[in-house]
Write the structure tokens for this entry.
Amino acid sequence: MSTDAEIQTRLIVGFEIHVQLATKTKLFCGCALGFGETPNSALCPVCMGLPGALPVLNRQAYDYSVLTGLALDCEIAEFTKWDRKSYYYPDLPKNYQTSQYDLPLASNGHFEIETKSGTRRIGILRAHLEEDAGKNLHDVPGCSLIDLNRAGTPLLEIVTQPEIHDPEEAYTFCTELQKLVTYLGVTHGIMQKGQMRFEPNINVAITTGGTEYRTPISEVKNLNSFRSVRSAIEYEFHRQVHDWKSDNGYLIKERPNENRGWDDDKGVTVFQRSKEGADDYRYFPDPDLVPVTVTQDWVNEVRLSLPELPAARIKRLTTDLKLTTEDAAAIVANRATADLFEAAIEAGGPATTLMKQYLNVWAKLANDQDASIAGLGVGHEAMASLAAMTEKGVVNATAANKIAEALIGSDKSPETLAEEMGLIAVLDEDQTEKWIDEAFAENADAVKDAVSSPKKAKKAAGFLRGQVMRISGGKANPKITGDLIEARLAELASEG
Amino acid sequence: MAEIDESLVRHVATLARLKPDDAEVASMTRELTRIVGYIDCLNELDTDSVEPMAHPLALRNVFRADEVRASISAEEAVGNAPERERTFFKVPKVLDTGGGA
């Protein structure tokens, strides 16, 4: 990664990623997710760990996990079981976490990302299902307050191979993975709500004098923003190289691996605990849950719900519709929005104009309402006709903006709205000439500049066009207006 | 068979958040050695060709649909807690010893 006078360093990063699944209920009981209201209001004997309660697996959580495994090109296990990971912590009511230990439901896959140095294929070691713990609050001196609403939430843990060698690459990997899983619809993927948590395992290979040394691995816990992922990795890279330089015994197996936390304000990682001696979780099969066998039919059924993935879709849109990669990526970012766009194309919307309106008009309206474009509730046919009307000059761009806004929450067609709002462009030359007469009469100085001042001519002509648009109330057709003004000015010039 | 010695007993006690005194450690070491030694006779069987058993029942694939079922109220949930604060469980302050999913 970098070269000092005498040492070479290479960053090594692998990820553990927790993805909160978008099920309605918890992994092993029917308590509702989407809590956040009253503490401990979404509990039952199962997720409270009361004696005698029996967990039953949520089929949807398993299907979402298989779908994600397929999207990551994993092998789907034919047989899995549930294991208890035992440890004591107040937010873990059963004193064990139900997880998949030695038989993860998916393994041996990969995920491709585009980086500055080309396509990178990152190996996926495994993905398994487990349940989340509750939450501790420490806002009372000397005490902790426990809210178990989150306990039992389904998490898909994805573990990558240690194949990332650059903080920027890590950033790209995490953002692209977040896009993928939200695209699949298996998670809402909202980072601020902790619905995706990233834990990089970081160390550095240092080569000097023909010998390679490796620093101890640090695991930075619970990062929930992409920016902090990148910053924490950058920080750890420099810290580990520095620590090795000041202590040549700072090596894996010589010093313990450690857990660290990220302090976003100070921009540093903070030591949490050393992993001296392996963690002893005493895993054993959970007798309360029976194993899962997945048939080929089941996998095929899930595979049917696998959508065209973002990378493939961007490629197709750039090829078929001649969109730029950047524009296609903007459209594909949200699956429902991309579906709507393609439906509008299908309904006869002209691609280029539709694209422009999507990124300028619709995106802006969506942004104003804090919604996605699909979330505006405007149908694909309305979008297609508005684009077609704009392309044909039936309405001009400014009018199209107004019509788009009026379409939200309306069941009228763009044509009807354009008529009602008096926004149908006037293609009639006589009417346009009248507006031009008015504009020229009001702006004699500009007319003079346009005719006789080579320096100011272009700007003045543009100004006159704008005045015609204003006087017409936005109904003048820009092309017709421009042509007529040009002809009129040429005539005035020849008259001298 | 793993040898049950005092350090192993102390380790297991720590994991279980138990604090046995020295006399208890000594007696537990003796007792556990006898118990594990008894179970150890299972090792006389040749199990090389036997699949590990993940569950004693032959049942597979017991699922429920992703449908919300009524939960108990927050009041009921914390009703039996030794200490509470509003509808939180209130516990002695814990330092992070690294649990978590």
